Predict the 3D structure of the following.
Amino acid sequence: MVPSLLILTDFFQAANRALDYATNLADPLGARLVLLHVRRNSVLDPEMMRGELSNLSREAISLAMSSVARQLAVPVVAEVGYGRVAAAVADAVSRHHPELIVLGRPDYSTTPAEMVETTSLDILRAAPYPMLLVPHTVLSSAPPSRLLLAVDGHAFDLGEHAGVVHRLLAELRASLTVLYVAAQSDYDKKPPTTLESVVRTGLKLEATPIEIRSISNRNPEQGILQEANPKEFDMIVVISRRRNFLGQLFHRSVTAQVLMHSELPVLVLPAL
């Protein structure tokens, strides 16, 4: 089966930036794009009531999808889903089995954090799957080559998704920095132990240039964001355990905070 990346589009700026990023990523991976637009026309949809959704007719959507597909330099399949985004994405994932779900992050700078219910968080709750969130400010001209993987030193299992990171590192010939983020009481953990927790996931890192960093910060998300300097790195990789996407306080989790505030694209890997 030809590998694929599932990319969501609503034809706004954030989605267009994510599409550019996904196109640059798909080429070296030899992947096709599955372009998905979800038509949300329920008057009860909270984003529809806030005027944050495109309200295009079926004909206009078909024309827009065809126009976008023609301009892409990689193979593409275009689809239209209906209803809530998380359900439509779960359906597309079950049929296409993509390596990643890719979507754009709009500008939330004027929205109070407690009011933000992003599509990315809804998708992680409904269909935990490797997901790449691209901020609307990112201009992509080349695939990522410098990855920052944030870990907390505790064991985790990526299951079948370990192959996604291995493919990214191998095909993109990327370097990997493993960032151990600790509370002050745990800061003396030895870096080799941190690397061992990553290797035990099944990741094949033999040919990958690896650097280990350790930092201490009372707020792990702040530590990750401070280390994720766009001059040093192209992408953040975070591990999100299942309890995080099912919990009532998921919007306060480290994963959620990094997703909402990172200047870099964020790859979320669900762990068992």
In short: The longest helix spans residues 13-29. The two ends are 25 Å apart (CA to CA). The chain has ten helices and ten strands. Strands lie at 4-8, 32-39, 76-82, 100-105, 131-135, 146-151, 175-182, 210-216, 235-241, 266-271.
